[in-house]
Amino acid sequence: MPHMIIGFLKLTLACLILGTGMNLLGLSTETILAGFGMTPADLWLLLQRFVGWALPNIGLGAAVILPIWLFTYLFLPPRSGYDE
C-alpha cells in the first residue's frame, strides 16, 4: 500500500510541475481545447456521453465474466506453493 501512495504522490508532483510550466508558457485548458475546436462544455458533454455508453457495457460484460471467474475459482484445484 505505501508503494501506491508514493506513486500517487510522485504523479501528483509531476502534474503540478508540468501544469506550472504550461501556465508560465501561457497555456490553459481553454486554449488547448480551442486548438481542437472544443469548449470546456463540449468536453463535459463528451465525457457524459462516454460514461453513459461505458457503464452499461461494463455491467453487461461483468454479468458474463464474473460468474465464469467465480466458477473457475471455486472448482479448480488449489495451487501448490501457498504453504510457504
Architecture overview:
The protein is mainly α. The protein has 2 domains: 1-36; 39-75. The chain has 3 helices and no strands. The protein has helices at 2-24, 29-35, 40-75. It is flat, with a radius of gyration of 22 Å.
Helix content: over 70%
Order of helices and strands: HHH
Q: Could you list the spans in which at least 5 consecutive residues all have pLDDT below 50?
A: none
How large is the count of helical segments? 3
Give a brief description:
With about 80 residues, the protein is mostly helical. Helix content is about 80%, strand content about 0%. The chain has 3 helices and no strands.
What characteristics describe this protein?
mainly alpha, flat, 2 domains, 84 residues, 0% strand
List the helices and strands and how they pair.
Blueprint: H1 2-24, H2 29-35, H3 40-75
